[in-house]
């Protein structure tokens, strides 16, 4: 009778276990349903070749240090005359700087200025005195200079009271500037500190320009 009771108890336990097993399985399934499905890693996308940045070329030039500037390009050299050179003599400057014009007659004034330099230059006048009238808004005027080989020349000019700055430029027949005055005054000399010497005969020219003012002027050329 006791054996029969034990078998009945075991049967009850097995019955409960059989009932509970599907319930546990169902609960586990429900618990798994609440969790999100695992995410697969994305497949690597292909990168278009155009989207890849090319490396930038580097400059081979050396960097300029901070606080410094790049060296400026040298200006082209001035053309040199093939027929004339400058003869320099500083002792020839004083006779011009000590000269004072009377401003009554430009022809007499330029003659007096040139004569005051004769003792140092040993030059004499060639040709006649050239005269003109010009203002600072007029184009430059050109006078002939018939230069001879083996001789040196000096040009003197005197302006009237209305001109404050008269400029002298001497060019050879090729148009190359071979000399000019070095002062801003109404009585220029080219060259103040010397003379222009020619190795060949040349049809040179003297260019007259007014820097400031208006009036008359006179020019004389002296040579050795």
Question: How does the SSE layout of this entry go?
Answer:
Elements: H1 2-34, E1 84-88, H2 94-97, H3 106-116, H4 118-121, E2 124-135, E3 141-147, E4 151-159, E5 163-171, E6 177-180, E7 189-190, E8 194-198, E9 202-223
Antiparallel strand pairs: 1-8, 2-9, 3-9, 4-7, 4-8, 4-9, 5-6, 5-9
Notes on the protein architecture:
The protein has helices at 2-34, 94-97, 106-116, 118-121; strands at 84-88, 124-135, 141-147, 151-159, 163-171, 177-180, 189-190, 194-198, 202-223. By secondary structure, the chain is of the alpha+beta class. It has a domain at 84-223: Jelly Rolls (Sandwich), CATH 2.60.120.380. Strands 1, 2, 3, 4, 5, 6, 7, 8 and 9 form a 9-stranded antiparallel sheet that branches. β5 and β6 form a beta hairpin. The protein is globular, with a radius of gyration of 53 Å. It starts with a helix and ends with a strand.
Brief overview:
The protein has 224 residues and is an alpha+beta fold.
Average pLDDT metric: 78
How many DSSP E strands? 9
Helix content: 10-25%
Query: What is the element string, with H for helices and E for strands?
Result: HEHHHEEEEEEEE
Structural class: alpha+beta
Low-confidence stretches: 1-34, 44-53
CATH class placement of the domain at 84-223: Mainly Beta
The percent range for strand residues is 25-35%
Query: CATH architecture of the domain at 84-223, please?
Result: Sandwich
| Count of DSSP H/I helices | 4
User: Which of globular, elongated, flat, extended, rod-shaped describes the shape?
Assistant: globular
Instruction: Please summarize the sheet with the most strands.
Output: 9 strands, antiparallel
Per the CATH scheme, the topology name of the domain at 84-223 is: Jelly Rolls
- Rg (C-alpha, Å): 53 Å
Terminal CA distance: 170 Å
């Amino acid at each position: 009778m006791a054996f029969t009771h034990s078998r009945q108890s075991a049967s009850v336990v097995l019955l409960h276990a059989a009932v509970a097993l599907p319930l546990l399985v169902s609960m586990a399934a429900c618990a798994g349903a609440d969790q999100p499905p695992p995410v697969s890693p994305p497949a690597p996308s292909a990168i278009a070749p155009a989207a890849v940045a090319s490396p930038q070329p580097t400059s081979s030039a050396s960097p300029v240090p901070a606080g410094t500037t790049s060296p400026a390009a040298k200006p082209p050299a001035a053309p040199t005359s093939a027929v004339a050179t400058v003869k320099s003599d500083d002792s020839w400057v004083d006779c011009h700087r000590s000269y004072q014009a009377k401003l009554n007659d430009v022809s007499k004034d330029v003659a007096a200025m040139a004569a005051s330099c004769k003792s140092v230059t040993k030059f004499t006048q060639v040709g006649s005195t050239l005269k003109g009238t010009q203002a600072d808004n007029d184009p430059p005027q050109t006078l002939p200079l018939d230069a001879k080989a083996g001789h040196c020349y000096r040009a003197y000019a005197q302006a009237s009271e209305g001109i404050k700055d008269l400029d002298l430029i001497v060019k050879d027949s090729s148009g190359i500037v071979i000399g000019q005055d070095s002062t801003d005054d109404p009585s220029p000399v080219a060259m103040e500190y010397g003379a222009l010497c020619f190795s060949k005969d040349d049809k040179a020219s003297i260019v007259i320009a007014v820097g400031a003012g208006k009036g008359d002027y006179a020019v004389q050329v002296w040579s050795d």
